Amino acid sequence: MDLNDYKYYNNRELSWLDFNFRVLEEAYDTTNPLLERVKFLSITSSNLEEFFMIRVAGLEEQLQAGFGGMDISGLTPRDQLMKISQKTHEMVEMQYKCLESELLPSLGKENIKVLKVNEIDEEKKEFLDNYFQTTVFPVVTPMAVDQSRPFPILPGSGINLVVELEDEKEERLYAFIPLPTIFPRFINIPCTDGTCLFLTEDLLKMHSDLFFSGYKVIEISEFRITRDGDLSIDEDDARDLLIEIESSLKERKTGFPVKLEISKNMGKNLRDFLVNALNLRSDNIYEISNLLDLSSLMEIANLEGYEHLKFEYYSPQPSPSFYGKEDIFKVIRENDVLLHRPYESFEHVIDFLRQAAEDPQVLAIKQTLYRVGKTSPIIDYLIKAAENGKQVTVVVEVKARFDEENNIQWAKELEKAGCHVVYGLVGLKVHAKLLLIVRREESGIRRYVHMSTGNYNYITAKLYEDIDFFTCKESYAQDVSALFNILTGYSKPPTWKKLGVAPTSLRETFLRWIDNEIDAVKKGGKGRIIIKVNSLLDVSIIKVLYKASMAGVKVNLIVRGICALKVGIKGVSEGITVRSIVGRYLEHSRIYYFENNGLPKLFISSADLMPRNLDRRVESLIPIEQEDLKQRLIYVLNLYLKDNFKARELQPNGEYKRPTEKKSKLFIVQDELMKEAKKKFRKFIKKQEVDKFNFPKLK
């Protein structure tokens, strides 16, 4: 059997679009609160924008270069672009059907109204006129197009108005009005009941004549360009990586266009003018029936005063391992600790770093940073540690896509504070999430380690599901120290005692453990693999999973997004199930379970099963060996396999459907994990003999 055959693999891009359809399902799901449905619709739009900026742009470049090679599913760039266009047009139609038929009417019933020009009474018009004159008009810059002023390079992703004008000689002229991005898209108009919103582009249309005094406005319509957003950085030639990336970031705003969205009502003259100027294939033009750029609906989703239309507030629970304990180092000396966020609080990770920054016995701190966010207590404590005289080394990945500007700024701040900053490695992204603290103790120098599946970002820590692991066992600490030496200096990879590390050994580690399950079954034992990841794309991994299924190993895959593996192929993948869960929190952790003949092996990792993670990134795989923590992870994985409402199962025909087996009780894994975290903490508090009023105040 030739497992290289194209028929055994799904296309990466089409699989990703299937994932975005699953997010769109959440916008349609009436069991979700209304503003959460609005949020899901917004997310589908921002997801799609990023997909076109990176993935579609890459395929367009291949097409222009005449590349005709096939991907693992047997599709050429031209084939992929054609299928992407077909699927995306279907998605856009479903997005706007959701907006117009379901969300806007439902918002109206809750007195949240997006008003049109003809719905504005005199009082509201007076408010809008004043807002326009005092706030908007001084900021907006119209841009004419003529012989001396050619078609401007309009930034990607923003809303623009294109205007057809007529001068006194009855000649037709064209101009643009870019929407200012410093203001909210939705203007909140004072009204007696509920919330009245008005689009900024409609306000500009109402006053368009003021921008073109002496000219007649024939037509004005909105459009939106999506541009290539992938940075092309020649790292080998870059004398200073920071300067090179900062320069490339400017190019992102002016990359070649890959998608044009126009109003469905746009006249032929304006349409032809835009299409000719942008030189786009017709496949990449999308006619939109309502407001462009649905990602701006996040402004409505985040409206204050409508908590009854959002998910019930959930506060991440303190971990019983850390809560009320003044000395975090003592806790970790006694036992390894696992946190499952956002069900448990990321505050413990921040406290770990805070205590290290303040503790006079701490000599050094080393940390990797991938996505930190715009504000960060993590950065604050690293700076404080440096100011307190500790040796602080930070590996900041300045190539983290769409976080480059933030990370460059943080790198400069850290350097200014006296931290030793390393900007990743040439040709590799540092994606591993590691924190190493070196402390002087009575018994000598001891190293404490934090490793995670998620970023050191305290905002997304409340929205993304991830696993954190704390230990001070020397075998882990030696590996993490050795990895930092590779990242910051000249050091060859050692023989790893505990960690699996990409790009040197991680793929081989996965292949070895899957082969181990195959051997166990061949010798008459039981074999089982459970893997929870964001994406599964690597062909070598998929092949060996097929072989495992063919040998009789039971394989359960929980894959949130891209999945190139196919299920239900006779004689190949009948023993494999794939499910995806999209819910309130973004499933982000990577957990790997291997039955190992009754002695299960459990790992957490920063890595998905994709070529980029295994070949072009620094990633870490961490074994969880403490028995109670292993059992906890096994329990969590089994909960994910029980979900019968938010889960979607991959079918042999490539579709994703809700689990078909009849269950008397609805089971939603994220809801269950929230309940359990609360229950566990309450139970812990009740057991305490000390006065609970002396415990730290809950946040």
TrEMBL record:
Ranges where the Polyphosphate kinase N-terminal domain occurs: 9-114
GO CC annotations, alphabetized: polyphosphate kinase complex
Domain named Polyphosphate kinase C-terminal: residues: 327-492, 499-665
CDD domains: PLDc_PaPPK1_C1_like, PLDc_PaPPK1_C2_like
Record InterPro entries: PP_kinase, PP_kinase_C_1, PP_kinase_middle, PP_kinase_middle_dom_sf, PPK_C_dom2, PPK_N_dom, PPK_N_dom_sf
Catalytic reaction(s) noted: [phosphate](n) + ATP = [phosphate](n+1) + ADP
Sequence ranges assigned to domain Polyphosphate kinase middle in this UniProt record: 124-300
UniProt: Mg(2+) binding residues: R371, R401
Molecular function in Gene Ontology: ATP binding; metal ion binding; polyphosphate kinase activity
Pfam families noted in UniProt: PP_kinase (PF02503), PP_kinase_C (PF13090), PP_kinase_C_1 (PF17941), PP_kinase_N (PF13089)
UniProt keywords, alphabetically: ATP-binding, Kinase, Magnesium, Metal-binding, Nucleotide-binding, Phosphoprotein, Transferase
Cofactor: Mg(2+)
Coiled-coil regions, chain positions: none
Top-level division of the source organism's lineage: Bacteria
Residue positions of the active site: H431 (phosphohistidine intermediate)
Binding site for ATP: N47, Y464, R560, H588
Protein's GO biological process: polyphosphate biosynthetic process
Role summary: Catalyzes the reversible transfer of the terminal phosphate of ATP to form a long-chain polyphosphate (polyP).
Family per similarity comment: Belongs to the polyphosphate kinase 1 (PPK1) family.
Alphabetical list of PANTHER family matching this protein: POLYPHOSPHATE KINASE
HAMAP family: Polyphosphate_kinase
Protein name listed in UniProt: Polyphosphate kinase
Originating species: Petrotoga miotherma DSM 10691
UniProt gene name: ppk
